[in-house]
Write a sequence for this structure.
């Protein structure tokens, strides 16, 4: 199966889960990044190794080329990023930095970061003057040529970044004791700051099933429509997996709840990460044999 | 595929996601349950319609028959439950009650509830005298004859109950604003009590991949072992799905992280709910073509 066949899948950046004892760990990269961004130190040698993608309210920074109307992600160098932040008087908090992974290109390790600049309204004008703007992921998805694997990779990186950056907003406090959480592992995990609790908090990924229910004769599909849909718009049934359910059971329950129809065999098709406000994982299934 | 082939799958109780306008909604069942449990009212007519399963620190109440050493879940009637709670001076909070679903048997609707009695140490003796005790789910799993579909159903109900009951402990506070959360929809959802936030909180289901990686010749399997394992114990590789990953990508990343081996084709096998401290959903995949 081609991983690039689904939008938001096929992220080319290797994002190994951080291990504390790695020679160049994400933690040490974070330390370097924060030092260089926050102090008056001159950025010289490290500039080229950092690629920083700003997000504003879940939207990644995006530029476009006039030729062919193609978009590209607005990766900033460390010095450009620093100068933008200083001009718009933005001070990044610990929650705003997220390690996206690293990639070796021609023997050089590039380190990729997402930063959350939602509060930096001054930045919009600043970047707008440079033909950059913050664009909704769905818009980028529609604007992408799905046969262009390079563009699909960019979409996947943006989706991964959005999911991690947005998760920091929904995990500011520990669900168990209510204390503040602090980012650890370069923003890929969080931890409760209360020493008596100290719970580790992992990015939330909510599994969802989306299914095409078809009849035994394989000539009719079961679709649904919501009241908010425009006329003639129909969609596949879908829903969250509940605790205690297999995904095949979730397909059966959701179809039964929404339509009263009992589903027969359930066949897995593929899965796709979906970077909504919560980072969903959606699992496509096709399903045969309803009688109606 | 037979849903009962996996432990903790195949819950026979229909747990339709509560709809507020249903004639007999879980909310109205909750109101009845709370009224009958908390006041001095005599329980007469409704007693038989409620089946209540107590959980203590994630362990369901369990009894066993002397014949064949079979176990069964410790379902209590409303009046029994009330009398136990009164004897051990337990007052249930809103967070302690979870609607597990309803089932129509011979024209009568039975309503199933899970209750969390973790703080009620007095209850252990009380119930012990009646040959009931609280048993870890893994122990029940091992003690179950996997070809006995009725016993497997009981295991699935216990797993579903545990996942929901335990989730209330980890979702006491809103991750977004830090305020207290309150249960809604009969304990199947929670909501932030801060009117300015009001976020809805859904039970957390963490998708996990567990995979049997095999070589191209189909004659060797890739297994791992942790330092805490007993000698000669090996296990399949497994890991959490990260935001922005399809499950096929999670299989590849985890295998690469743990062993440095690149995985070829990934084939989905089946899925299983796993009621750990977090309610996992694990997805089994088999995978071929590593070269080593």
């Amino acid at each position: 199966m081609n991983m690039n066949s689904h939008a938001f899948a096929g992220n080319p950046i290797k994002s190994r889960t951080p291990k504390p004892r790695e020679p160049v760990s994400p933690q040490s990269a974070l330390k370097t990044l924060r030092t260089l961004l926050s102090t008056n130190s001159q950025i010289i040698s490290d500039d080229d190794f950092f690629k920083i993608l700003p997000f504003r309210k879940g939207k990644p920074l995006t530029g476009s080329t006039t030729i062919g109307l193609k978009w590209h992600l607005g990766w900033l160098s460390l010095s450009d990023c620093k100068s933008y932040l200083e001009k718009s008087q933005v001070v990044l908090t610990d929650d705003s930095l997220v390690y996206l992974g690293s990639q070796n290109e021609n023997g050089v390790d590039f380190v990729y970061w997402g930063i959350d600049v939602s509060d930096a309204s001054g930045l919009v004008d600043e970047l707008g003057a440079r033909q950059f703007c913050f664009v909704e992921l769905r818009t980028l998805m529609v604007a992408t040529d799905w046969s262009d694997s390079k563009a699909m990779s960019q979409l996947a990186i943006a989706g991964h970044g959005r999911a991690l950056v947005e998760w920091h907003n929904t995990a500011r406090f520990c669900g168990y004791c209510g204390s503040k959480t602090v980012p650890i592992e370069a923003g890929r995990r969080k931890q409760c700051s209360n020493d008596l609790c100290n719970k580790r908090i992992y990015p939330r990924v909510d599994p969802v099933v989306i299914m095409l229910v078809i009849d035994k004769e394989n000539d009719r599909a079961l679709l649904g429509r919501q009241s908010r849909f425009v006329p003639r718009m129909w969609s596949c049934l879908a829903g969250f997996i509940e605790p205690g359910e297999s995904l095949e059971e979730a397909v059966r329950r959701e179809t039964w709840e929404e339509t009263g129809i009992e589903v027969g065999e359930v066949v897995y098709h593929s899965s796709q990460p979906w970077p909504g406000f919560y980072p969903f994982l959606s699992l496509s299934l096709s399903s045969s044999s309803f009688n109606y």
